[in-house]
Amino acid sequence: MDKGSTIFLAVSLIIIMLGMGLSLVADDFKRILIYPKAVLVGLTNQIIILPIIGFAVASIFPLKPEIAVGIMILAACPGGPTSNLITHLAKGDIALSVTLTALSSLITIVTIPFIVNFGLTHFLEKGQVIQLDVVQTIIQIMVIILIPVSIGMIIRRYKESFALRMEKPVRIASSIVITLVIIGILIKDKDNLAFYFREAGIATFFLNVATMLVGFYSSRLFQIKNDKAISISIESGIQNGTLAISIAIVLLGNSAFAIAPAIYSILMFFTGGVAIYFGSKIIDKS
């Protein structure tokens, strides 16, 4: 991607994170005191189990190094705003979903550079290896995540009516932007599109489904109620693909690393639809 496209992607992510901030209030961060077990299980799945499953998928499947690195970038990312919408439609606990998205977004500011550097070192050949500067990367991720989210929360705190009015338009604009970004990436590599879907599609689909199943059944193992288990399942399996694409292109400067997150961002709407169907059935029966 050229410099203009890279700047566009970074600005787009900032807008998306601003939109997330508009939907958050201080109480979202206090819910860890209300149901600590659910929050702890959810964060463990997102911060620890997800990268482990991502590494297993990238190692077991016969992937090109760039695709494997893309899987690791994806697995390092937190849940995204889309997970909150899917949770709502699946009749999960939306408050828990928002809490997990917010907390994981903060924690992964620190964990992302370490997980991504591990993926780069492990899957690329010695001559290809590049390293993210940990401190610089944390600062950059703070700029594109923490600052916009904080601004959005401040607007929500002092101009609630405006924030509520803007929440839907910003969400729609965000969806349009990420769709354009994904289309742009796929068009750029259109000659390899069938190959990428064949290779990255199976791996990312497996990552998505496996993490959702682990999220749900680990919740049931700890006797967490169905609506919260659904939230944890979706938060564990629906990642912030926009952030993963931004890390690949903006921070690492390699659009090949963005192929897996781009394809994942398409497939997750299909698996999300399945989660909505089964989640609704589970809640209706309970």
Description:
The chain is mainly α. The protein has a single domain, classed as Na+/H+ antiporter like fold. The protein is built from twelve helices and no strands. Helix 5 (81-89) crosses helix 6 (94-123). It is globular. The mean pLDDT is 83.
Keywords:
286 residues; 12 helices; mainly alpha; Na+/H+ antiporter like fold
Strand percent estimate: under 5%
CATH architecture: Up-down Bundle
Order of helices and strands: HHHHHHHHHHHH
- Described by the principal axes of the CA atoms, the overall outline is globular
Main pleated-sheet profile: none
Helix-and-strand structural type: mainly alpha
CATH classification class: Mainly Alpha
Count of DSSP-assigned helices: 12
CATH fold title: Na+/H+ antiporter like fold
Radius of gyration over alpha carbons?
A: 18 Å
Number of strands: 0
Span from first to last CA?
49 Å
Mean pLDDT: 83
Question: Which blocks of ≥5 consecutive residues have pLDDT under 50?
Answer: none
The domain tally reads: 1
Helix % is over 70%
Q: What is the gist of this entry?
A:
Helices cover 81% and strands 0% of the residues. The protein is mainly α and 286 residues long.
Q: Secondary-structure map with pairings?
A:
Blueprint: H1 3-22, H2 27-30, H3 36-60, H4 65-76, H5 81-89, H6 94-123, H7 134-158, H8 160-188, H9 193-221, H10 226-237, H11 241-251, H12 259-285
Helix pairs in contact: 1-7, 1-8, 1-11, 3-4, 3-6, 3-9, 3-10, 4-6, 4-11, 5-6, 5-10, 5-12, 6-7, 6-10, 7-8, 8-12, 9-10, 9-12, 10-12, 11-12
